[in-house]
């Protein structure tokens, strides 16, 4: 599998990259302190708890004393992480020795949090006001539906039946890097990274979108620290419980509107009050991505005759398949298509590689065929690779042909020189001719001039 | 005096080399682009013909396919 270009780093890396002033602002909120503590590596957690009730700086030496020699790299990672997140500050005393101290704000908030327990700024609403709360399954289905609708919008706005409320300028921001438009009249095409994006699992996709959303917050007049604080806070809410929207600030209210389009929260309106219900997508947000490797159930069956059956009701799946296969007909729960040379050429032109297609097919194999090895018939995978290599049958390279060498010595010297630079493409020692890559023309000229003298 | 000629070094399989040689042979003398046939799978051609060769190959490839009408 080729290296995925879209790096799905986790939330905390993003937090760590914030400027110091913003970080200090974030630590005003005790939930963020807790979220940060949760995200730390085990050793770093230990250090934070160790230092929690110590108000004076501790020398680095005394901390290193308890570290075994082979644990030193872990110690280093933990300390670096703490300093990077400004949880701990490094100072130097008069003897130029490093001293560590917890960030006072962080320390204070965490102390408070431990003693009093965390209290969310808002309580779940009593059930006599919120009459018809969706069940967890309904909520999950809602989240998935919203998310798919959003993705569909993202890759082709014409295909999506339902409209989302996300402004077209927001959509443009999300599409940047995933789609490219060669011509104004032409519909935008999915780029290589766009295809890779579609292959990622939902959490990674969500994170990518949220990251774009955060980095563009400033343009919309929203402070990115506020946004991060709210998103982290949201991840501490209970899935499926209703929270009153009048507890939110104006900015937060507009953020929840955007989030509901992504399926992170569900907005509902009662007779007087309105409330939002966080879904699983929202509460999973602060979990680091590595922990959530839930495999989605596959849906694709491929036969040795290149026919493709996809047991799916999702329009999104149909759109993804359309990228590299010819969809022949659609039944309510089944998409039937074929992988043809033409459909693959179209995919290759869009910068999708054979390996990506094959790994997509393998990862999404229907459970019935997934247990078989190989899950995608070998003749199909081989043919996909062959068709791809068929496109690259001719390789061209700018070069120079050198001939009419005055003597064999000069020829040999030029040969050796070109070989040394890794630029010798072809040589004919009988007729004294060589072909050398164009990039070392100036060096070759130089060496030949020197030979002449 | 050593002479340097600018061009393109092409490496491909035998049928493709033959295809390019044949393409060259079909052109009038003034438009011939192969400077040197190096061996079975390597050619040295004028530097301005890359696009022309690629499009000719694409055309050749397309002539071999048939797409079922939808």
TrEMBL record, chain A:
The species this protein was found in: Nicotiana tabacum (Common tobacco)
Name under which the protein is recorded: RNA polymerase II transcription factor B subunit 2
Residue stretches making up the Transcription factor Tfb2 C-terminal domain: 382-446
Transmembrane stretches, start-end: none
Role of this protein: Component of the general transcription and DNA repair factor IIH (TFIIH) core complex which is involved in general and transcription-coupled nucleotide excision repair (NER) of damaged DNA.
Family statement: Belongs to the TFB2 family.
InterPro entries xrefs: Tfb2_C (IPR040662), TFIIH_p52/Tfb2 (IPR004598)
Protein's gene: LOC107781205
Pfam families on file: Tfb2, Tfb2_C
GO-annotated molecular function: ATPase activator activity; double-stranded DNA binding
From TrEMBL, chain B:
Subunit structure: Component of the 7-subunit TFIIH core complex.
The keyword Iron appears for this protein: no
Entry's Gene Ontology cellular component terms: transcription factor TFIIH core complex; transcription factor TFIIH holo complex
Function: In NER, TFIIH acts by opening DNA around the lesion to allow the excision of the damaged oligonucleotide and its replacement by a new DNA fragment. In transcription, TFIIH has an essential role in transcription initiation. When the pre-initiation complex (PIC) has been established, TFIIH is required for promoter opening and promoter escape.
Keyword ATP-binding part of the UniProt annotation: no
Annotated source species: Nicotiana attenuata (Coyote tobacco)
Name assigned to this protein: General transcription and DNA repair factor IIH subunit TFB5
Pfam family, one: Tfb5
Domain of life: Eukaryota
Cellular compartment(s): Nucleus
Alphabetized UniProt keyword annotations: DNA damage, DNA repair, Nucleus, Transcription, Transcription regulation
Similarity annotation: Belongs to the TFB5 family.
InterPro entries to which the protein is assigned, alphabetical: TFB5-like_sf (IPR035935), TFIIH_TTDA/Tfb5 (IPR009400)
Gene: TFB5
Gene3D superfamilies: TFB5-like (3.30.70.1220)
GO biological process terms, semicolon-separated: nucleotide-excision repair, preincision complex assembly; transcription initiation at RNA polymerase II promoter
